[in-house]
What does this fold into?
Amino acid sequence: MEKVFALFVLIFLFCPCAFAQNIYPINDKSGGGYIDKNGNIVIAQNYGFTFNFSGNYAIAQNKNLKYGIIDKKGKTVIGFNYDELLNLSEDFVIYRKNDNFGFIDIKNNKISEPVFEKMKGFKEGKCAIQKGGKWGFINRKGETVIEPKYFSVSDFNEGLSAFSFSEHTTDGYMNKKGEVIIEFKDNKLEPRSFREGLAPIIKENEKSCSYINKKGKTVLDREKLSPINLYCGSFYEGLTVFYIDQNPRKITTGFIDKKGNIKYSKTFDIPEDVSEGEFSAFDNFSSGMAQFTLDYKTGYINRKFKSVIPQFYEFARDFRGDLAYVKFENKEGYISKKGKWVWEKEREGM
It folds into this structure.
């Protein structure tokens, strides 16, 4: 029994996911602050504007519109001395100065002077940077680890980055050493990142796509999937969106799994004021919920593909943990997975 209790204590202390809770930015006439999933204010609205947390830290603005960094207790960890901070990730944040970019760490150590034309933010310990019009990568020390020689690169996802040497092509995928792991003979492809072990491969001027694994093997082939037109997005929570064109004014859409099996589908009439190529109904899953939009109104379905929040909202974001940000008639704010308002304010721009 003592061993079991000791194991529980170790999990409690050292598992970062066991008791972690999201907190959510709120911004209204009172200022910027943060709430928990129940709508309780956990960081007072003492700021000019607040942004989402990335890990344990978030970018915020003070009342003078200067940027700084705070933690989840509302403690200032980087003073509000910056004209602009952006893309906080992996405890590094990018700053802009004179139209160039550099980055600092969470202790406000300046790791890089503003010498880059563009920066994407850190993913898996590497940051894509543009210099001389070309893209490459630096590490957390600001050292160049992959020379900027590419027309485009994707962020590293699952250890691989898509790269190209010219517009509207993908030449392959490289690892964090810059070594080519997957090379394409036909480079008329659009780059997409790996997610959940697969990456969509989209041929130029085609609606449909194939998916490859990290060895470059095609595991979902466009020919075998025909007449399914894949959304050509990444897999989220094991599923991605597909479409089948029934006739000029009907469309079937839903979700397939990684084997190409249709897990859910529904057929819709395409509204007269919407072209066939613009019609969409479902978005990918996030935190067990997916948006469902028809006639410019959005609701949410769950993993059983059941409507759990009716189509009320003129604007809706994905669920991030327990809450999603929506706009409805004269108000906007956060709703729970039961569709109940947790925090709201008068809708801006009304």
User: Anything to note?
Assistant: The first strand starts at residue 24 and ends at 28. The chain has two helices and 34 strands.
